[in-house]
Each structure stands twice: as structure tokens, then as C-alpha cells.
Amino acid sequence: MEIIIAGAGKVGYHLAKTLSIYHNITIIDKNPEAISKIQDDLDVLAIHGNIENPQVYFKCSKKIDYFIAVTNMDEINIISTLIIDDSIEVEKKIIRLKNSFFFESSIFEKLNIYKSIFASYHIANTLQKLLEFPSANNIKEFKNSNMIMLSVRVNNPDYIGYNIREISKEFEDRVAIVGLERDKIFFIPNYSEVIKQGDLLYIFGVKSVIQSRYSNLETPKVQDKKIKNCIVFGADRLGIEISRVLLDNDFEVKLIETDLKKCEEASEILQGRAIILNSKYGWGHLLKEEGLDSADMLIASTANDEYNIIKCIEGKKAGIEKVIAINNDREYYSLMHSLGLIVIRG
User: Span 199-205, mean pLDDT?
Assistant: First the structure.
């Protein structure tokens, strides 16, 4: 297929890298350094130009299958879908947006956009699923199906030393243990594989059966503890959306942000439902003052992966049981995972 990607940032780069294996990719960006990196790394047509300029599309094929707009500006992504229609015949248009204002807008139908992707909604939706399974590390649902796959870390002494066949009996015949991660190495276990403490089991099967039994694999301490108090780092659109999901599920939320203006905006959007803390010099002094050390869950949701990692490590050190890091740059994903963090990709 012929595909044009507008935007050569992190999202555009990884899209081009993945799609170029089987398709002809053209990627456009006005940042010369981003284009130069793509030219060096990938086998794609990289064009230095402004996607808001109709003339830039004259260098592309006259008929394409997909146009995918993934710059970091919603307005530019929307405008580009209009401009390209005057220059190229496009079969389908896909757009990535940050502002949830557009979620229920009719603009997509008017612009003939095939699919809109809201990063904040996707992450918040993933978090919503994790809240249904508090002991899980990750969860994947399948469309038009009652089947799910989740991962859970085995820490309950009652299950350590038993093999896969014996543990599988816990879930009846409608569930299968399809993977195991141990010492950062993933493999598909056979029935005789003996479970060790800290193993991460990947379980696939009927949602209701898994939901009723999977938490037994965790320690009784984690299994029986109800998550109620949550800390969220970062009051940008994503942090606010995550806070909204938590609040709608009757969680108590404390949102921490270094930028005072963002704190004010978050307070207005969330209508005073969450406690907003402005902490310019870190949060160590807030642990005791604001009772943050008694939180059940911490979510680091800023756009800075290094900052998210640090906050999650600090949270673990403070004794917070469940810490979740939002992963923006795939280069940090393995590091986050190896540190034992629950990771949600942004």
C-alpha cells in the first residue's frame, strides 16, 4: 500500500519503521533533523516540508491508500487532512488528536476521516481495564469476545513450587497459561514448568473465570487490599483525563504538578473533585504533610519518561503498592518493565 505519514516525531518515526516492512511509506516533516534521522535509519521517502503547504504533496504519489496525521498539534493534523484532499486522491485518512473536545465532534464525518485516535482516551481506557483487575500488571481485551489476556506476578507462597499443570486447575478448562516471564526473559512454558516467586504469568481465557480466580496468585496482602487513594503526576491533558477516570470510579485523587497555571486549569476542568498540589521542588516534603505515603496507587503520566521512572521508583521506596508509568518513548519501555513497573504505552 501507498501511505503518507504527516509528522516525523516519535509516533511518526515508529509508524514509519513498522509500516515500511510491508508498505511504501512517505513521511513529511518541517524539522530537518527529524527527516535526516529517518533518511539514515529507514528505507522510506522522507520529505522535508510543511504539511500545511499544498505544494509539498506534489512530490508524493498522486493516489495513496492512507494518509496518517500524527504531528503534536491537533490543529495542524486537522488542517492537513483538508489540504491533502486538494492535491492527492486519498482512500482513507487517519488522524491523531490530543484534545478530548473533539471526541464527540461531528468534524470527522465532515472531513471524511476514516479513524481518529485519541492517545489520552486510549491510555485512560487501558487504565479503566486495569482497575477491574487490581492485581494485574497488564490486560488485553479482544473485540466481540468475552476472552481476555492478562499478566499477573506470582507472589503467593501457596502457589510457588507448583507446576503449570497444577496451577492451571485453579482456572478450570476455560483458561490457559500461555506465557511466563522470569528474570526479564519471556518464554512459553510447558506443563511441567515449576513456578518461582516473582514469575510473571500470562493468562488467556474467559474474562469472568479469570476475574474470579487470578488474584489468588498475588500475595494475600495485595489481593485483599482495596485501591482507593491515588496519586497522579502531571496535570497536562493526559493527567487530567486519567484523574477523571479515577474520580468517576470513586477513587480519591491527588494530582501533583510543577506548573501553577496547569494546576489552575486542572482544578477548573475537574471542578474541585481532586486535590491539586503544586510542587515545584519535588514531593518528598509532601509525603507526610499530605499523607501521600499512605496512597494505594501512583501513576506517573507526564510526557517525560525519565521523570516518570524516577517518580515510580520514589513511590515504590515510599511503600506504595501499585505504581504505573506512562511510556511515551519506546526506548524506555524495556527499562520500565525491568524495574517491575506497570507500564501503559502512550
Answer: 91
Q: Which of 38, 30, 42 is nearest to 6 (CA)?
A: 30
> Rounded to two decimals, what is the model's pTM?
0.73
Residues near 330 by Cβ (< 8 Å), separated by ≥ 6? Answer: 10, 14, 345
Give the model's pLDDT for residue 42: 94
Average pLDDT over residues 151-169: 86
Which CATH number is associated with domain 2-113? 3.40.50.720
* Among the ranges given (34-38, 78-82, 184-188, 207-211), the one the predictor scored with the smallest mean pLDDT: 207-211
| CATH-assigned architecture of domain 135-224 | 2-Layer Sandwich (3.30)
- Residue 251: pLDDT over 70: yes
- A 10 A CB-CB count for 51 gives 25
SS3 call for 294: helix
CA distances from residue 232 to 71, 125, 242 in whole angstroms, order as listed: 26, 16, 8
Site of grid cell 509516533: 11
- How many other C-beta atoms lie within 10 A of the C-beta of residue 16? 26
Q: Which residues share a beta bridge with 286?
A: none
Query: 102 near 38, Cβ under 8 Å?
Result: no
- For 154-246, list the strands marked E by DSSP: 175-182, 185-187, 200-206, 229-233
The CATH number of domain 229-345, selected from 3.30.1330.60, 3.40.50.720, 2.40.50.100, 1.10.10.10: 3.40.50.720
Q: Pick the residue with more confidence: 144 or 255?
A: 255
pLDDT of residue 224: 46
Work out the angle at residue 98's Cα, subtended by the Cα atoms of residues 71 and 20, and round it to the nearest 5 degrees.
Answer: 40
Q: Which three cell numbers stand for residue 137?
A: 500488571
Range list of β-strands (E), 60-210 = 63-69, 89-97, 115-118, 136-141, 147-153, 175-182, 185-187, 200-206
Q: Which of 304, 295, 248, 297 is nearest to 271 (CA)?
A: 248
Q: Is the pLDDT of residue 346 over 80?
A: no
Of 90, 104, 3, residue with least CA distance to 44: 3
Mean pLDDT of 53-80: 91
Four-residue CA torsion sign, 129, 133, 138, 143? negative
